[in-house]
Write a structure and sequence with these properties.
The protein is α+β, with helices and mostly antiparallel strands and 585 residues long. It folds into 4 domains: 88 residues, Alpha-Beta Plaits, CATH 3.30.70; 145 residues, no CATH class; 84 residues, Multidrug efflux transporter AcrB TolC docking domain, DN and DC subdomains; 173 residues, Up-down Bundle (Multidrug efflux transporter AcrB transmembrane fold). Helices cover 50% and strands 19% of the residues. Strand 10 and strand 11 form a beta hairpin. The two termini are 22 Å apart.
Length: 585
């Protein structure tokens, strides 16, 4: 876990420079003194400052946030007069939306789409393990009061008087209680506006005994608010071919982003959301409103997990096939059966440690597939050799074969573990993220050793042939000779020249050393890029347009539309979304 929080402090009427001097810098100093804080960032803007604090990896989330809140409260006297109460908003990796749904239509306006999105977001929020839903784009309903200065002058009414009367009429207050028949009743006075008509009939003044209503001095309009952001959905080349729409055409849109609770299964939540949307199509969602899933990390994670499972199965079958070439199908079956036993024990400990089945834990199994069979191969091959030699009874031959290679097998296994396990102690952000891989690989190798020493001998005793199937010219069982095997002959032809010829031996050693040093130079000269993890191959790309300071929202939206239009002929693009005046989810 990485505890993070954003602190918002309002300073009405202040310029960005004043906000930075009086709010941001003092708050940065306060937060930097908190134990466990690694970085502090701040952004100053008119009327407001935002300061972000990030703690070290592994710090307890609750204790860190309590220390943060206490430190802010202790230093409230350092804020200037007029500053608002600080608002602390916690952040976590689970705030990143796992799914986004874009509602778009060629018939309805963004105002209508926003109303549909509000209702749909409420239904999605009811799904278990959905933590938060946010709506991007679309204008909300607003009752606008446009004052007529001439009419106000004729009545002698000033704007502040109108504001005060509207605020007074739009409130509900607790006015006490009274008792009757042994029952206490609470009394509330006033009410909030429920319609534009109630706003129209607000009394702003009384002159000569006659009330003056708001509609007498102002125009009341019930409709969408002034746009503060623009969101649109664009049709790409691929979408145009599928639907017959014009590529590059854009439509008003509203996007719903969905974030999950910590520890929840993204794949299951995404499936539930998709079913919910399908069930509401045609009822809550009008027929002319299209709902496009523009992001689905649950589906992406599912595809990657199944891809790893496929690779895992292929790796197991490949290892089994190679073993079968040397030991026969019985030997291959012995090794094949040892793999699921090893992985089952490893997955059980994954469960006990609280690890989930994800790409990192599955990669650990793929990574050690070729290693976990080594111990079983060594045991099975040596038992196979002893059974062919027929120098001892079967049980004694099995025990003798294990005794020969048991200690080297144990040492070899722990040697590999000692090379892999230190990765679990990597510090920083990548440490906890990557730790399941070395831990899982080490557990798998320990269990592979246990399986090789206990289960593999039993399987080999049952499945391996008890003797030599080859016959000599007299029809009798051919005596087993290691030097007559194909692998021994090939290995002898390779090694004997190196062992018998000094020049060839030293030439081979020098050649291997040169190749080793040359391979290290690939990193020195950056001919091979070194990264902790490769870039994720997502099916989405973000283009960020940074317009000059002071550019209007309409101009920014127009430029974004031009950029989107330029992508219409790219065959790989299915669709695109434009977010002007707001961050993309």
């Amino acid at each position: 876990d990485v505890p993070m929080a954003d602190i918002f402090v309002g300073y009405p009427g202040a310029t960005p420079e004043e906000v930075e001097k009086n709010i941001a810098i003092p708050l940065e100093k306060v937060l930097s003194n908190i134990e466990g804080v690694e970085y502090v960032y701040s952004t100053s803007m008119p009327d407001q400052a935002m300061v972000s604090a990030r703690f070290y990896v592994g710090e307890d989330v609750e204790r860190s946030l309590v220390r943060l809140y206490n430190e802010i409260m202790k230093n409230m006297d350092r804020f200037p007069e007029g500053a608002t109460q600080p608002m602390v908003k916690t952040r976590s990796i689970d705030d990143v939306p796992i799914m986004t749904l874009t509602l778009w239509s060629d018939r309805y306006s963004d105002f209508d789409l926003r109303r549909v999105a509000d209702e749909l977001a409420l239904d999605i929020k009811q799904i278990e393990d959905v933590a938060q839903t946010d709506i991007h784009g679309g204008r909300t309903r607003q009752v606008s009061v446009n004052l007529d200065k001439n009419k106000m002058a004729s009545y002698g009414i000033d704007p502040m008087q109108v504001v005060g009367q509207i605020q007074a009429a739009n409130q509900e207050l607790s006015s006490g209680s009274f008792s009757s028949n042994d029952t206490e009743y609470l009394v509330d006075t006033g009410d909030f506006f429920k319609s534009a008509e109630e706003v129209r009939n607000v009394v702003v003044d009384v002159q000569n005994g006659d009330p003056i209503y708001l509609h007498s001095i102002a125009e009341i309009r019930d409709g969408p608010e002034e746009p503060s952001e623009y969101v649109s959905y664009g049709v790409g080349h691929q979408k145009a071919q599928e639907t017959g729409l014009n590529a590059g055409e854009s439509y008003p849109a509203v996007t719903i982003s969905v974030a999950k609770r910590s520890g929840a299964d993204a794949m299951a939540i995404a499936e539930q959301i998709q079913r919910k949307v399908d069930n509401l199509d045609g009822s809550l969602i009008p027929a002319d409103v299209n709902v496009t899933t523009t992001r689905n990390y649950g589906e992406t994670a599912s595809a990657k997990v199944f891809s790893l499972l496929e690779h895992l199965l292929v790796a197991i079958l490949a290892v089994t096939f190679v073993v079968a070439l040397a030991l026969g199908w019985r030997g291959g079956l012995v090794v094949f059966l040892s793999v699921p036993v090893t992985f089952a024990l490893t997955l059980f400990l994954y469960y006990m440690f609280g690890y989930t089945l994800n790409r990192i834990t599955l990669f650990a199994l793929v990574f050690v597939t070729g290693i976990v069979v080594d111990d079983s191969i060594i045991i099975a091959e040596n038992m196979h050799r002893h059974f062919k030699m027929k120098k001892l009874p079967l049980k004694q031959a099995a025990i003798a074969s294990i005794s020969e290679v048991g200690n080297p097998t144990i040492l070899a296994t722990f040697t590999v573990i000692s090379a892999v396990l230190p990765m679990a102690f990597v510090s920083g952000l990548m440490g906890p993220y990557m730790s399941p891989m070395p831990i899982g690989a080490s557990l798998a190798m320990i269990f592979s050793l246990i399986v090789a020493l206990i289960i593999t001998p039993w399987l080999a005793y049952i499945l391996l042939p008890h003797g030599n199937d080859e016959k000599d010219e007299n029809g009798e069982e051919k005596k087993y000779d290691l030097k007559e095997t194909l692998i021994y002959k090939w290995y002898a032809r390779t090694m004997e020249p190196l062992l018998e010829n000094t020049f060839k031996r030293w030439a081979f050693i020098i050649g291997v050393t040169v190749l080793l040093l040359a391979s290290t130079l690939l990193f020195v000269f950056r001919m091979v890029e070194v990264k902790m993890l490769p870039f994720d191959n997502k099916n989405e790309v973000q283009l960020i347009i940074d317009m000059p300071e002071g550019t209007t929202l309409e101009r920014t939206n127009a430029v974004a539309r031009e950029v989107g239009l330029s992508l219409k002929d790219v065959p790989e693009i299915k669709d695109y979304q434009i977010y002007a005046g707001d961050n993309a989810p």
